[in-house]
What we know:
The protein has helices spanning 6-13, 24-28, 47-50, 53-58, 60-74, 81-92, 106-110, 165-177, 195-202, 229-239, and strands spanning 18-22, 96-100, 115-117, 120-127, 133-135, 152-156, 180-184, 206-211, 223-226. By secondary structure, the chain is of the alpha/beta class. It folds into 2 domains: 6-32 and 78-119 and 162-239, TPP-binding domain (Rossmann fold); 40-76 and 129-156, SIR2/SIRT2 'Small Domain' (2-Layer Sandwich). A hairpin with a 5-residue loop joins strand 4 (120-127) and strand 5. Helix 6 (81-92) runs parallel beside helix 10 and helix 8 (165-177) packs parallel to helix 9 (195-202).
Amino acid sequence: MYEISEKLRELLAADLPVAVLTGAGVSAESGVPTFRGDEGLWKQFQPEELANVDAFLANPELVWNWYQYRRNIISQVEPNQGHFSLAKMEKRLSSFTLITQNVDDLHRRAGSRNILELHGNIVRNKCIKCGRQYENLPESEEVPQCECGGLIRPDVVWFGEMLPQDIIQKAFLAAEKASVFFSIGTSALVQPAASLPVMAKNRGAYLVEINVEPTVLSSHADEFLQGKSGEVLPVIIRECGLE
């Protein structure tokens, strides 16, 4: 059983602003693969070779079909109890912001709504020319085209691209005003996301880390709960009266 501190119980009971940062560890519990070393055609490629603008422009069909393959795999997994617990937390708190590094849309499928997707969302697409967004495009091996004539690409942040500035600014704002900040399932190494829990802590937030193993952030956390988010978060929800 995980021991939840009295301090965390009090803060959540007081309905103070909460911000959460989630990383790949949360999705891994649902069975979302890292897409490194896959079998078949894609085994010969590293993600860095496909997830960039130059690769898309050089061979749009190859990159498009890799993302189709990824979408198909993600469509077969389901949100886990960690995802569902965060959705419950959002419904019970007046000020709650979920910041995620994941692109798999599992938070939204679990019921979360106030989500800041730092790296985009694999189920969305956008025109490489005009930026128009598209969802639920029919599956096709051919790269679809926008009405403006531009090729449509996955709406995710590729290697070498900047994070969406409006999203990252909202994430920093949420970290600044948070009274409680959760860092969940992330290595706390990839910037600029890794600076969010540190900023929150420096602004006086109570910093809680949930991870299967300690990270560089663990020694700075006010509370480190070692374990899977799908196991730890339901305990927090239950013991803090957020069901």
